[in-house]
Amino acid sequence: MSRQVSSEETSDPAAMDARSGLKSLAGSKGVPDEARYAIYYTPPAGHALTRHVSDWLGRNAFQGAGKASAIGAGVDAFISEPRRYGFHATLKAPFRLADGCTSGELEEALRQFSKKTWPCPIGPLRIDIVRGFLALVPRSETPRLQAFASSVVEAFDRFRAPLNAEELHHRLDDPLDDEEASHLVRWGYPYVFDRFKFHLTLTNKIEAPHSNDVALELRRRLGALLDEDYRMDRLTLFEQSAPGLDFVVRREFDIRR
User: Fold this and answer.
1) From residue 200, how far is each of 58, 104, 134, 177, 237 by CA, in Å?
2) 216-219 contact pairs (CB < 8 A, 24+)
3) How far apart are the C-alpha atoms of 227 and 210, rounded to whole Å?
4) Cα(9)–Cα(12) distance, rounded to whole angstroms?
5) N or C: less crowded end of the chain, CB within 10 Å?
6) Residue 38 in 3-state DSSP?
7) What is the pLDDT of residue 75?
8) For 36-41, what is the mean pLDDT?
9) Can you give the C-alpha Rg of the chain in angstroms?
10) What are the φ/ψ torsions at residue 231 (nearest 5 degrees)?
11) Angstrom distance (rounded) from CA 204 to CA 81
12) How far apart are CA 21 and CA 11, in angstroms?
């Protein structure tokens, strides 16, 4: 079982290399004005789950700018992060484009990838706690889904610029174990491959008893929508045009094979 370790102490040579890489990255200068892209899964814009969760978050990533949650002002303290990113499940976490790559090339690669892969079952969903926040997760084990996500991480890593200091410090807000630190250095995100867990984020990190109350409210609002047999039948490219702005849907790519 993995354990959390400090950045100063580990007996694993590979993890020590990763920690050294993190320190080196933390000392580098950021690149503040570049757009970021992310490869996500989200149900279609017109799907009832997208509409209901968008009301909860106070923003629909298919439509652009945010607003106060339609559910009520008392919810806003719980949803600032997922509101900014939009309703989604992460496949390839936000990244700046590598030198020499263009957004058009990224889109073409997504188009070709989507033509050559197969839809992947997700199944019915349930509300659970993932790393301290509430999210929708599959009710059953989904090994094909983990393999699919891993293929996306690998296929599009050539488009990813190395982390800058600001991005690194953001990721280090969460304590990472040795393997997660290695993933962060190598892939720009700690929760990939064996650490991947498919989830559609609904809240910020939230503590009991608030988490219990909010989960009950979400179950009441989403109800039978969670019983649908979902599947990974599209990849969605999100874009953040400048730091601090909301992520919005740039383009969808149907998986039709």
Assistant:
1) 16, 27, 9, 23, 15
2) 218/56, 218/127, 218/134, 219/127
3) 25
4) 9
5) N
6) strand
7) 73
8) 98
9) 18
10) -150, 155
11) 6
12) 16
Hey, is 74 helix, strand or coil? helix
- Closest residue by Cα to residue 91 from 189, 231, 204, 220: 189
Task: Report the amino acid identity of residue 177.
Answer: D
Is a pLDDT exceeding 50 seen at residue 83?
Answer: yes
SS3 per residue for 137-195? EECCCCHHHHHHHHHHHHHCHHHECCCCHHHHHHHCCCCCEHHHHHHHHHHCCCCCHHH
End-to-end CA distance of the chain: 38
Helix (H) and strand (E) counts in the chain: 8, 9
- Give the separation between CA 135 and CA 150, rounded to whole angstroms: 20
- Are residues 146 and 170 in contact, defined by beta-carbon separation less than 8 angstroms? no
